[in-house]
Amino acid sequence: MFSSNNNNSYSNRTTENNDRSRSSSNNTNIGYSAGLNKKTPSNCGSYLCIDSDFNSDFDSDVNNIHDEDESFDNEIRSSPKSKDQSENFTENGLESEFLEQNIEDKDEKITRLEKKINLLKEELEIAERNAKKAEEEKNKLINQNQEYKNSLNEELMINKQINNENEKNKSKVNQLNMTIKTQITKINSLNMEIKSAKSKFESERELKEQSESKFYNIKRENNKLVKENQEYKNKINSLNQRISDLDKENSEINNSNDKLSIQLDIYKKELERNNQYL
């Protein structure tokens, strides 16, 4: 899951190393075999200038390094994770943000439903108190009617008054009965609304829990991808360090070759002078 810059730099470095390896195989000059394109004197055009076993071992080490680089490069290119991890990481990040917003929206909606339920409960309590008060008022009037009947039963006028009062009270009782029925209907309606609100509340809570579960799963997957990305980066850094160490060794070998070439030139000149004396 490493960046395209890291991929490009590593691929370029691998290509450069492979070019050096091909240059080494096409040129008998020992300077080229060291990988630094530094020529030795033209009169030393063979590996026989120095120990042939050394040349053979050195070429084998260099070729092994190139083989390992190419193998690792092919492994990274063929890995489905190396192709998809960056896109997955971006998509998971966007989905994670969406789920976070979705959870916040669910919380807000649940809060509103809770407030609505509390308001409906308050209205229910008020309706119940009104119904109770009406019932008490009705019972009080009924008791009053009975008292009127008992106390004014002897005289017609009183009876008429009682009847009139009873009619009035009946009208009031009917009104109170209608009020009670209305309050009962309202109570039933409020109970239905409360049940509906509770059902919505439970549904929203379940959706929130599902969203939270999905969010944490994606977050764990993102953490796993980040960890894998770091492992790939560490592996690349290790290979880069190895390449740097080999370049340093190559430089030292070339310096040694240069010294050997100079020494060989001196020996040749001395040999020529000796031949002249002879």
Automatic annotation (TrEMBL):
Residues 96-270 form a coiled coil. Residues 1-37, 61-95 are annotated as: Disordered. Residues 1-15 have a biased composition (Low complexity). Keywords: Coiled coil. Residues 74-86 have a biased composition (Basic and acidic residues). It comes from the Eukaryota. This is Uncharacterized protein. It comes from Piromyces finnis.
